[in-house]
Amino acid sequence: MKKFMLILLSIIGAIALGGGLFVSFAPTFGATAQGQSLDRIQKSPNFKNGKFQNASHTPMMDESPLLDKVKIFYKFFTGVDGSSPENALPMVNLKPNDFPTTPSQTPVITWFGHSAVLIEIGGKRIFADPMLGQRASPVSFIGSKRFNKDLPIKIEDLPTLDIVLLSHDHYDHLDHGTIEKLKGKTKHFFVPLGVAAHLVKWGVDPNKITELDWWETAIYEGLTLAATPARHFSGRGLSDRDKTLWCSWVLKSATNSVYFGGDSGYDTHFKEIGEKYGPFDVTMLECGQYNKAWKYIHMMPEETAQAHVDLKGKVLMPTHWGAFSLALHTWQEPIRRLSKAAKQLNIQMATPIIGHRWEPTGTLPQELWWKGIQ
C-alpha cells in the first residue's frame, strides 16, 4: 500500500511539475508587464490590492448554492444538445481584391464570427479582437472548436491593417497564433494596460504598441481611439487573474463613431460612455456565452439591447456568438433572444453572415439566416 501511494504521489507530482513548467514557458500564455508598463499599472486608479478592479462589485459567480455550481460544471463536461451547429454556418468567401487599397471613410464592417470584427472608418482598417484560431484555448487539442473550419479569407491574404485593437487577454479574444501571423502586416496595436507584454513576447515591436487605461484617448493619423470601461476580468494562466486590464473601445473619425464592446456584464458604464461619446453609428456588443451564474461578467441578450440604448447607438451588431460554444445555451439562443428584445425596444439590428461586408449607414443585412440550421 505504501509503495502504491508513493507511486501515485510521484505521478501526481510529475504531472503538477510538468503543468507548471508548461504554463511558465509555453509562449501561448504570454508574459507579465515589466518596467514602464508595470509602473503605469501600479499607478492606475483601477488597480487596487494587486489587481485590476471593476467599477462595481463583480463576483465571478453568483450566490447560488454549491450544488448548483457543481451541476453547471458537470454540464460543461457532458455537453448541451444544440450548443454547436451540425453543419458549417453560411459564410461569404472573401478575396484580397474585395478590400479597397484605401479603406473607407464611412464605416464598413466585416464580422469574422465571435468578437472578431474588421472595421473600416476614417480611411483606416482596424481589426478588433482578431481571434482567428481554431480553438479558444492555450493548446490545440482542448477547448471549444470553431464552428466553421475555414475563415472568410486566409489570414495571409488579409490586407495591411492600420490597427489591431484588443479588448482583453482571454483566449477567445487574444490568440497567439493569430498575432504571429498578423504582426508583420499591422502598423500599430492598441491594447488595455498590461496586454503589451503578451505581444512583445510574441515578437511585436514595442514601438508599435500603445497601452491605455480607462477613459484615456489616443489619436492615430486623425482617428481618435478611447479606451472605455467594461465589466469583466482577465488572465491567461494560473496566477495572473486580473493582472491586465479589460476595456471597450470608441473609434471616432471626423464624421462617424463606432463602439466595440469586447466582453462586459451590464452596468452603468454603458450610459456613461453614451453620454460622453455617443451617439454611435453602430455598436458591436456581446450577446452570447452567458449564464445566470456568471451574469455579472457577461450580459444576457436583453441587457445587450438595453446597453445599445444606453450608448445611444443607431445600429446594433451582435458579437460573441456564431463561432464557439463557451456556455450552456444552444448556439441559436442568443440571437433569438436578442432579436426579440431589439424588436421590443425598436432597435435597428444588423445580422450579417460571417464575411459579409456591410455599411451601418446603408442597407442593413437583416436576414434571419440562422433559421432552419440545426
UniProtKB/TrEMBL annotation:
<dbReference type="InterPro" id="IPR024884">
    <property type="entry name" value="NAPE-PLD"/>
</dbReference>
<dbReference type="GO" id="GO:0070290">
    <property type="term" value="F:N-acylphosphatidylethanolamine-specific phospholipase D activity"/>
</dbReference>
<dbReference type="Pfam" id="PF12706">
    <property type="entry name" value="Lactamase_B_2"/>
</dbReference>
<dbReference type="GO" id="GO:0005737">
    <property type="term" value="C:cytoplasm"/>
</dbReference>
<protein>
    <recommendedName>
        <fullName>Metallo-beta-lactamase domain-containing protein</fullName>
    </recommendedName>
</protein>
<feature type="domain" description="Metallo-beta-lactamase">
    <location>
        <begin position="125"/>
        <end position="321"/>
    </location>
</feature>
<dbReference type="GO" id="GO:0008270">
    <property type="term" value="F:zinc ion binding"/>
</dbReference>
<dbReference type="InterPro" id="IPR036866">
    <property type="entry name" value="RibonucZ/Hydroxyglut_hydro"/>
</dbReference>
<dbReference type="InterPro" id="IPR001279">
    <property type="entry name" value="Metallo-B-lactamas"/>
</dbReference>
